[in-house]
Design brief:
- The chain is an alpha/beta fold.
- It has two domains: 159 residues, Beta Barrel (Lyase, Ornithine Decarboxylase, Chain A, domain 1); 172 residues, Alpha-Beta Barrel (TIM Barrel).
- The chain contains twelve helices and 21 strands.
- The strands form three sheets. Strands 4, 14, 15, 16, 17, 18, 19, 20 and 21 form a nine-stranded mixed β-sheet that branches. It has an eight-stranded parallel beta barrel with strand order 5-6-7-8-9-11-12-13, surrounded by five helices. Strands 1-2-3 form a three-stranded antiparallel β-sheet.
- Helix 2 packs parallel to helix 9 and helix 8 packs parallel to helix 9.
- The protein binds ligand LLP.
- Ligand LLP binds next to helix 10 and helix 11.
- The site of ligand LLP has 21 residues, from helix 10 and helix 11.
Length: 421
Amino acid sequence: MDHFLYRDGRLMAEDVALDDIAAAVGTPFYCYSAATLTRHFRLLDDALAGMDHLVCYAMKANSNLAVLKLLGDLGAGMDVVSGGEYRRAIAAGIPGDRIVFSGVGKTAAEMRLALEGGIRQFNVESEPEMAVLNAVALELGVVAPIAVRVNPDVDAKTHEKIATGRKEDKFGIPISRAREVYRHAATMPGLQIVGIDVHIGSQLTDLAPFEQAYRKLAALTLELRADGHDIRRLDLGGGLGIPYTRSNEVPPLPSDYGAMVRDVLGDLGCAIEIEPGRLIAGNAGVLVSETIYVKEGEDRTFLILDAAMNDLIRPAMYGAHHDIVPLNEAAPGAPSVVYDVVGPICESGDTFARQRPMAEVKAGERVAFRTAGAYGAVMSSEYNSRPLVPEVLVSGDQFAVIRARPDFDEMLNRDTIPKWL
Ligand code: LLP
C-alpha cells in the first residue's frame, strides 16, 4: 500500500496534489511519501518482532539524506556499499554501530573511513579483502568486526542482472569453503568474527529461494560454532520483491517472510539483520513528468515526455515495467489509447513502455511513473547534458525540495578547459 491516491480526480502524494508540486518545482521530479516510507519500515520491523533484530536499510535504493534521516529516526540501521554511502549515513546522523558495510570491492581507504568513524560490521566477500581489512585494522590499532558473505549457490529466480547468490555470480565466498575461510579469519588479530552474511538477489517474488539459502545458513552456523567460532549475528541480506503492476505480481508479505525467518533461524539465538532497499523505498516514490508532444508515427503513437532514460533507467536497463498514470484521473469509461512512451534522448533505448494502453494524454498534461522510489533517482545521470532531476518529500500536507534541480552553470562549471587548449 502507498499514499499516492486520487482525490477529487487529482493524484495526491499524501495530502498534496502532485500537480501543485509540479507547478512549484517544474518537471520532471521525484516525489517521496514520508508516510509510505514509515509504513514500509514498520512492516518489516514488526515482521521480525520478538527476535533480536536490526533492519539495515540498503541505501543504494534511495540515499537522499532526508530519506536516511527519516528512517534513522525510526531506528533503522544502514547497509552501505561505498565510502560515499558511509559518509551519507553519518551525515544523516546514523550511529556507526548501526551501519553494516557490504560490497565486493571495498578499498583500504573505505575500510579506514569506517573503522575510524564507527561500524557495526564489515560483510567481507573474499580472502584478499579479509587480509587487507586485517592490515588496516592493525595499522589503526583497532579490531574490525566481520561477517563473511557466503554464496549459497541458490537461484533467486529473478532478473539475470540482479541475481547474486549463484556460483557464477561475483559475490561472497562459496559456502563449501566457508569453514576453511572462517578458520583463516580466526587467525587474524585485526578481525573479530561476529556472524555470517548472505544476499541472494533483488526483487524476489517467492519465499522458497530465501528459505533454501537460510536453511544452508542455519546448518553452517552450527558447523562454525562446533569449530569454535562465535556466530552471534546472521545478516540475511535484502531482496524482498514488490508489486510493480497492480495486477499480476503478488510478492510475499513481510509478515510471511518474518514467520519463515523465525521458523528457520529462530532457535539459533542469533541477532538477525536484514538489508531491505526496494521494499522500503520502491512504492514510496513516483517520478512526475510532463508530455512534450504526442507524435503520430507510421503505425503507432508516441508519447514524448520530458523525463528520459537518464532520469529513470530501469526500463532501458532491465526491461522493467512501471505503471504510468495521469495526474488528472481519467473519467470513468474514457477510452484508452495505446502509446509508446518515450523520452527525448537520442537513442531508441530511451523507451519507457511499448504499446501501453493508457487513458488519453495530451501535450502539456502530466503523468506519474509509479514505484519509482527505489533505484530511480540514485541511478540517474546527466546523459545528454540533462540536469539531475530534483527530489521532493511530502509529509501530510507539507512538502519540501530535498534535492534541488542543479542549474546549468553548476553543470558547466564542473568541467575545465585546460590552459593549453
Ligand atoms: N544487500 C545487498 C548486499 C545488496 O546488494 C542489495 C541490492 C540489497 C541488500 C538490497 O536489495 P533490495 O532489498 O533492494 O532488493 N538496480 C536494480 C537493483 C539492484 C540491487 C542491488 N543489490 C533495480 O533497479 O532493480
